[in-house]
Amino acid sequence: MNYSKLGSSGINVSRVCLGSMTWGTQNTQRDASEQIDFALAQGVNFIDTAEMYAVPPAADTYGKTEKMIGNWLAANSSKRGDIILASKIAGNGLPWIRGGGDITGESIITSVDASLKRLKTDYIDLYQLHWPNRTSPHFAKHFPGRISFTDVDRQAHSDQMLEILQALNDCIKAGKIRHCGLSDDTPWGINEYLRLAEKHSLPKMVSIQNEFNLLHTKDWPYLIENCVHQDVAYLPWSPLGGGVLSG
Fold it and tell me: β-strands 3-5, 12-14: how paired?
């Protein structure tokens, strides 16, 4: 297994990350536990999940995937230090998660605590924002006519981002999370978070998790260049195009 630094965090993670979004719909607890055991045996040390999983997202499976990972951790507590565990706070738009509201400083605090309880662990290595409060060109919104950046109140979103960073900083100081990252965001999102972090002495986003595969290459080369020069790890989700590229 090959390993890389997780951006500016200094953490070494396996180049293969074990995704978990189907655990609780397609996969049972037994399946999940077997997959974790198998992945660790191959040298994988990186596991990614999210509060909104399982997928397809639904109210009755909200948090179910984290609970499955938590059950494995409870049965294998001696291996917690061997795993880099990543999770995410859901963005707006899902009515069964905080009424579909935006990510706020308050929601960061409550969501971290809830994820820790489901995961049955004292800390999360990488805590990510699943998607930004503003509409971003992800989930097929990058096609012409789907999004208008001129409609965005830049200052309002910057103020929200500062509040989010302050809450993440509180969680880091409390030992609840180690590092923070983005998902389904853009070069402006990366750079605004980095600017605010530097200006206010707050945590730097160490990674961004975006869709990237041979059918979906919109991040190349501009966002990738941004990540390289700002030391932000790029974590591609759906590298096999949801199974299309593997048949």
Answer: antiparallel
